[in-house]
Amino acid sequence: MIPGSSKDHPSFVRSFGYAIEGFITAVRTERNINVMLLVGALTVIAGLVVGLDLTSWCIIAICCGLVIHAELCNTAIEAVVDLATSEMHPLAKRAKDIAAASVYVLSITAAVVGILVFAHALHLI
Length: 125
Fold this sequence. Notes:
This protein has 125 residues and is an all-alpha fold. Helices cover 81% and strands 0% of the residues. The chain has one domain (31-121): Helix Hairpins. Helix 3 (54-84) packs antiparallel against helix 4 (90-121). It is globular and about 55 Å long. GO terms for molecular function: ATP binding; kinase activity; metal ion binding.
């Protein structure tokens, strides 16, 4: 497809199909996505147990969504780097390491936010 061209451009609905296909591929092939989905599911269960309020649910949903988003972007960056070069190039390593670091930073931030949300819900702070 040529950028800016409507020729062979997928329909809006078909674009969602590609997105779902990408998500399923990531779930089937990437361990870290599965770990993050599991942690997200456990967080939802914990939220139901403690009875989070609407604002807390919004914060938890945003954090979970951002972490999954970051991991999907990291996976896509790694795939593009692997496509661009099969050799161990210092710039390829740099790109992959920085992409992974962005997921790490966001995951730590989300964990801190989660601790604060649950501590507040349990009246610990």
